[in-house]
Design goal:
membrane, mainly alpha, transmembrane helix, elongated
Length: 71
Amino acid sequence: MTARTELARTLDAIEYKLNLPRQLRYRARLLNLRLYRLGEDNPAALAGIAVAAALVAGAAVWLGVKTVQDR
């Protein structure tokens, strides 16, 4: 492997790591795929995760509203 090839690979790796929009798109696709597979394999677990996420979001909104009202 030549020095030029190694430098090109290193720069490509750095660009890949620092490209945050690309990283976020990749992570979002990976999460979607994992949730889809979980839904196929164990729909009850996916429903439980959805309910838990809704409860956390609801609690966050409730606490935010309560904090604003107490001011």
